[in-house]
Specification:
mainly alpha; Arc Repressor Mutant, subunit A; 219 residues; 9 helices; three-stranded antiparallel sheet; 3 strands; 2 domains; Four Helix Bundle (Hemerythrin (Met), subunit A)
Length: 219
Amino acid sequence: MTEDPIRQRTLPTVLAGRLRQDILSGVHAAGMQLRQDAIAATYGVSRIPVREALLQLEAEGLVEIIPHRGAIVTPLTRQEVNDVFDLRVMLEPRLLIASIPHLDASDFAAIATVQAAFDAAVAGNDRGRLGALNASLHLALYARATLPRTRTIVAGLLNTSERYTRLQLSTAAASKQATEEHAEIVALCQKGDGEGAAARLVAHIEAVRHDLDRIIATG
């Protein structure tokens, strides 16, 4: 029987999602080798969709495929963090300034819903959801920017940053600071203060970078 072509297309994405969560949650630690045959056996699939899933994760920076060694979970390095955060500082304020004039009541209602979910995850110490909710909140603020290429790039950067967000928000103080900074950015957006909101956003991104730099330095 011929395998369902839709399943063939979606299986690597499903596998990538499961492996991504295992990496982000620490099940697969930095430096760990991800063996294709072992993954295939675990999920009862062939090695072909596993290889495609690992290529997706390599594009996201979560694994590195090394000849004769296979896929290795990438370590968190200062160089990698700076690369991602330099791009975020350049692109996210541009999106925010372009989006703010077009945000309406329904947009702010959607933003408030995500913001409340993030705050609830912080209160419940549900760190597994913080990265995705943080990305969703940022993207909700940029939703009205008519800069589709920039938004696609930023969505990818935020996806990569989920790993960093979980690490950075590992303390109560960092989580509390994040909720306060988000609230300040949203309030400035509601006032229509694009320049002020963008400046606060840059400070927010740089604060996260500073925390990550400290975490990496202390090992």
